């Protein structure tokens, strides 16, 4: 990530003003919000994760899409680069749990969701490219909803250091916004709102409520960074938390050192889905769902 250089007296003035409350840094000093945004945004990317339904009873692998597409559903979420790989959210691991079209199938054991194409793009580039995952173990990063994919090659370790320490934190909360949900307009260029925020990370507590920013834009998510003065006038940032939407409110979830694989799969039973058959003579008795076989 880029290092940001500011005059120390200017940073000290911003720090002193921010002690009063959580302030919208962009409203206070927009030119330096842009400097901070430029310093951190190269570490963010947008993930588009698609999935299909697989027929578990078929002799050969058989997959289904939705309404003549090669995928049944897709989700859009944020990713962030760190030194050891990248963090992603559960929407990129179990996208079907966020898809209303999957509701009618999730209690059935005959058809199960499987991940298919996973792609990413930067904030500046609208073109998606394949997101390599390999066979690396996905490790739980925090609260079942954040996961670390160890990968030191895809981004050449050009990511943030991660701060998992406890105690008082004086950092910057970076909200990522778009005009519309990414599902409606995937090629949007996101923007950022930056607030100063002090938190006290306590032992045994994994998340902290925060107020919504003053914006009418769609909030995609965000990250909590800690600045560190590494040289005269030079500041670098460490990733200390991520923004999650829980029960209608936003929370900063702390990152952990957990190495547990913790990926939830949907419950299954034998009810809910009419089997798809190729035999047209059975079509009247067994109407297929609106997907298609790949």
Strand content: 35-45%
Work out the number of β strands.
Answer: 17
**SSE order, one letter for each helix or strand:** EHHHEEEEEEEEEEEEEEEE
Poorly predicted ranges: 4-31, 262-294
Helix content: under 10%
What is the mean predicted local confidence, pLDDT? 78
**Which class do the helix and strand fractions yield?**
mainly beta
Number of helix segments?
Answer: 3
The largest sheet, given as strand count, sense and whether it forms a barrel, is: 9 strands, antiparallel
Rough shape? globular
Question: Nearest-angstrom radius of gyration?
Answer: 22 Å
Descriptive account of the structure:
It is a single chain. With 294 residues, this protein is mainly beta. The chain is built from three helices and 17 strands. Strands 2, 3, 4, 5, 6, 7, 8, 9 and 17 form a nine-stranded antiparallel β-sheet that branches. Strands 1, 10, 11, 12, 13, 14, 15 and 16 form an eight-stranded mixed β-sheet that branches.
């Amino acid at each position: 990530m880029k290092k940001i250089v500011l005059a120390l007296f200017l940073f000290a003035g911003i720090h002193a003003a921010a002690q009063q409350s959580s302030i919208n840094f962009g409203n206070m000093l927009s030119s330096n919000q842009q400097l901070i945004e430029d310093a951190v945004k190269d570490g963010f990317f947008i993930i588009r994760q698609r999935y299909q339904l697989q027929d578990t009873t078929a002799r050969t692998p058989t997959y289904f899409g939705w309404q003549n597409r090669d995928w049944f559903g897709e989700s859009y979420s944020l990713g962030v680069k760190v030194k050891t790989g990248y963090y992603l959210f559960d929407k990129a691991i179990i996208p079907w749990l966020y898809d209303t079209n999957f509701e009618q199938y999730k209690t059935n054991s005959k058809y199960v969701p499987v991940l298919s194409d996973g792609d990413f793009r930067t904030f500046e580039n609208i073109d998606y490219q394949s997101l390599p995952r390999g066979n690396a173990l996905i490790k739980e990063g925090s609260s079942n909803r954040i996961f670390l994919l160890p990968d030191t090659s895809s981004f050449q370790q050009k990511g943030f250091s991660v701060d998992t320490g406890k105690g008082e934190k004086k950092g910057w909360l970076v909200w990522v916004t778009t005009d519309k949900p990414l599902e409606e307009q995937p090629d949007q260029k996101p923007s950022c709102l930056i607030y100063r925020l002090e938190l006290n990370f306590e032992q045994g507590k994994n998340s902290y409520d925060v107020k919504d920013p003053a914006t009418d834009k769609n909030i995609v998510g965000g990250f909590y960074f800690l600045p560190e003065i590494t040289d005269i006038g030079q500041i670098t940032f460490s990733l200390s938390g991520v923004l999650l939407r829980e029960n209608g409110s936003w929370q900063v979830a702390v990152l952990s050192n957990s190495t547990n694989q913790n990926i939830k799969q949907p419950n299954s039973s034998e009810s809910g889905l009419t089997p798809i058959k190729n035999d047209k003579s059975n079509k009247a008795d067994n109407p297929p769902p609106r997907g298609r076989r790949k």
